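Take our chain:
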Amino acid sequence: MTWTPRWLAVAGLVLLLAAMAPAAAQAPGTPQPKNPKAAAYFHAALGHLYAELAAQYGGRGEYVSKAIENYKLAMREDPETGSLSQELAELYLQSGQIRSAVNEFEEAIKRNPEDVNARRILGRLYTARIREGQQTRMNEEMLKQAIAQYEKVSEKAPKDVSNWLMIGRLQKLAQNSGASEKAYKKALEIEPENEDALTGLAMVYSDLGDTAGASQMLRRVADKNPSLRTLTALAAAYEQMKEYKQAAETYRRALELNKENTDLKRAYAQSLFAADELDTAQGVFEEISVEEPNDLLSALRLSQIFRQKRDFGKAQEYARKARQLDPNNLEVQYNEVSLLEAEGKSPEAIARLKEILGGMSRKPDSISEKSNRVILLERLGVLYRMSEQVSNAVATFREIAELDPDSAARALAQIVDALRAGKEFAAAEKEGKAALLKYPNDRLLKSVMASVQVDLGHFKDAEATLRSLLDGKNDRDTYISLAQMYEKAKNFGDMAKMIEQAEKLSKTDEEKETIHFMRGAMYERQKKYDLAEEEFKKVLKVNPSSASALNYFGYMLADRNTRLPEALEMIRKAVAMEPNNSAFLDSLGWVYFRMNRLDEAVEQLRRSLERTSRDPTVHDHLGDVYNGQNNLKDAIAQWERAIQEWNANAPSETDPAEVAKLQKKVEGAKVRMAREGNAAKKN
């Protein structure tokens, strides 16, 4: 028997009871139909009326109770009135009588286990009870019961998409990712473009860390129905995969649907910033800054953008604004350090970091405070290392190891690197071995220890250490480390093989850029200059702003004394991007020397030595320039310092041929000085 939503057929009865509202009640003497179907019809009509009265009068309890009572009587008189069960369940839910409803439908299923509709409703009721109360065990039991009912329904109604969707959602809630994935896929077999199934499956893939799978599902939804919800979810998936250009484009599409949404604008600008689309990001952040003058994120990001563009005046302006908005914000303070560092003010950057750290507890209680202190200490240690303050760097990294056990292995690896930078190779080896005794399986420590073994010329040991990281698997970073090790060993055949292996695993433009750069450096070391040039051009085709490629390519030309204007142009571009890079400044000084612009050469080489005083090549170059100026005394001093630094280098970096050349230069210059001195005396 089927019941229509409104019971117009009993209009007389409805009007009678409506006239009695709001005090309507079923009169004791009302005659009841004797035919079961008629009785069921009668009670169903009353139930609908009371339900409407309950809705009209704000869910008054007496109307709800009467509606429930009459629906139950109707179902008792005629069991075929199953369509009423849904409305009965709604009333129970509205009135908060969930447990009563559960009992009612559990009994109904006992009477008729094949009642699919009752199972659907019971599943829904169990679902409503999942968040009821505070006891985790009870919630989990309700979740389990809900899943069981919907799975029973799926046996009888395998083509019911909504049922598979419920199973997918509940299994995900139960953290059963495999079962959830299976349910959503069942739904998609029936309706391949079902938006809820695709979105649900995307969430499962996201939980599993399969952001590529998640984005694939969301793209299908967005292509069919580019809603705000779907586009923002897809953009977030792209962000997780660090595909920031796609994220920015997706946020742009979302903004077209809601142009005034400032939060969306921020997300769009953030993705542009992460994608290195600085000009567009700047425009969006400036727009937000006008709309919301006190927006901290805009001020901070604009400072960072202008810093990267090397417009330090503007960067400082927005840094001051950010500090005014929130002087205690750690990211704001860290940006100030980065700005000082970018300006080449390492002592000031160190002082600012120490000031920030001085305002923090040395032994923080909370995890976040400890994490923040570790980040700042690590940056301070790196600055000390770059400033050739090895003992300070070691002490800083050791503080990290003592402060945070989770960061200890990384901190110990940093200590080893600091000692290597200070050319204290025996101490670096000792620290590395001790660290590996504590953390024998730490990949970073193993990798750093391999670098120490390379420094000491223990290439077989380094190879074994690095290959242990592979453990029978393909790992791009390890192949690159092996290639670098073979380069130091001048084993260019195996270096080429490792570059090829890494190339197979390189997917992004940035990863491919690294491969071409390494191959170019390998060819340059082998004096295969035409092949090297081809590789560096490939790098610059992918990334015309690659400072490293511009510098290496330019230096390669300058060192061979060829195409000097072209070399100068490339090196100048590199220095403009990284004006404090000592290697780039050395290249600039060297190309000036080749062009016989000796005063400019001296200036740039001195700037290079201000940033790293222990590079023998820079001392050698400066000696050559002084020699060109006939300043033999200073030339000899620089060449002798170059010999000293070559001899202090790691065994794998020591070049006896270069030392011999330098000694010959020194001897020749001393002979010339003696001759010139004797000639002066005669005159």
Remarks:
- Confidence is low (pLDDT under 50) at residues 1-29, 134-138.
